[in-house]
Amino acid sequence: MISRAALLWISLLFPVALAAPLSLNIFDSGSTSTSTPTAISKDTVQAQFLRPAQFSRVAYCSSEAVTSWTCGAPCESLGGGVKVLQAGGDDGLIPMYFVAHDPATESIIVAHQGTEKSSVLSILNDVQIQLVGLNSTRFPDANEDIKVHDGFQKTFERTADGMLEAVRTGLESTGTNKVLVTGHSLGAAVATLDAVFLKQNLEPSVEVTTTLFGLPRGGNQEWADFVDSKLGSTFTHISNQNDPVPTVPPRFLGYQHPAGEVHIKAVDADGEATDIVACGGQENENCSEGNSVLNVSIDNHAGPYLGNISFGGKFCPL
Q1: What is the value of pTM for the model shown?
Q2: HSE toward the beta carbon, residue 128, CA cutoff 13 A
Q3: Which one of 52, 86, 146, 152 is most buried, counting C-beta atoms within 10 A?
Q4: Among the options 33, 56, 77, 185, which is catalytic?
């Protein structure tokens, strides 16, 4: 009997077998960058990526543990003072998420859990890979050519309104004007939609920064361009070595990544990224887009990415 974990990876690597018939031009692979990646310093990695990774790890813990800030090592790594404004999810159709105030960076944090491999309902969020129109009610300035992953959009919509209300309340009560949106895997896909949604619904003076880990493709070329136009250089998605998830759903189904990839090429025995580069353009063939399908590592998807941080519920207290 096939395990739930195996079903997850089959759904990611061979999505055509699990999807409804798609009316897509399979020869449309979108734009590809060939620019040479540029090295990122260790200081930049620590300053810009470590804290988002720590918050993304917390998102795998239960709402109760997060609300009380008793989620063991994931909470302890962030220090005291973090105030949780909202937490929810059920480890299934509604992945765990939370909104919090981080006094260390004077930011409102929005973080989403990735796929829970032990939950069939969570996996179902991933396998609904039909490209569907972006919800024009939530994104009124999006044109009809923009298509997104059906399962990711449905997952986003289950928490979007509550998340927005909590962010607005947090901004007002703390006086900050910064929001960090983060997540890993499925959580990164939902966080991308969150970030664009927040950018459209918050005051222009609010800085929205998005830092994601192990991001699967979430929409078509028009969606990638829309993300680029709305978030620009404030959007970063970090891929780890030979992780296959950033390369799915495949481009021949019409999927395309936005710009902003940062690629970890090597991690040392202490879990520190030792070779990390910024990848110019969309789908840079010198980064995860250039990985061989014959040399993938599912372990790379969990981590470690940097700071010896890996993702998953096993790092949370029972």
Answers
A1: 0.89
A2: 17
A3: 52
A4: 185
